[in-house]
């Protein structure tokens, strides 16, 4: 019988000492992690829940590598993240928009290439599902910096006040992204080079990503759940949903505003039999 392992991360804040005084307060990310863990548990997954102060790079990579050591062909990894998203300069030139997307962990930004590198540790044939409820979480090629005009902000959040947008969305403030990257540029540039060299000639993991929005959009926080997770839970309907991952994505998308359009993205060559399974099937 296949094994299912899941990792659920919810960060309602970050360490201000690591982000030049910014604490990244959010409301609903820990609830998202707990609710996704409940779905995983009900469907036979062994779950690991990592909440705010424990959401460090070391703890999360340890959990991923533990899963890589336990899962074999036919097994499944479910990875969910709720928190801030960001973008930093791509210093290696392998991104069309010259930006790397990041997950904003408690102690530092975690590059999307780092996550893919961890997924590559999984044995061939392991099914990988990632659900990301954060800003900049799709795989588009436009920069969010180009689109956050006052008019766009007002359209999505009914305010032109950047502080109001920060409170309502899961976007690490642009000036803070730039400030932290400038401070730690040497570290991130070295990490990007290391990851690029490691990826040369390496195959992509067979993974499915359903994200809260496109790379050039913002993901809304909420009082109980993030908007994406709230709609996902409604569609899932305590397991009453019938259909595969594509129809699951479309059903969530239909319930979202046009200004926050969840993305469906695959890497490698995941089998159609996997993509056609009912979500969260071990």
UniProtKB/TrEMBL annotation:
Q: Tell me the superkingdom of the source.
A: Bacteria
- What Pfam families does its record include? Peptidase_C14
Peptidase C14 caspase domain spans which residues?
17-265
> Gene3D superfamilies per the record?
3.40.50.1460
Instruction: Tell me the protein's name.
Output: Caspase domain-containing protein
Q: Which organism is it from?
A: Streptomyces flavochromogenes
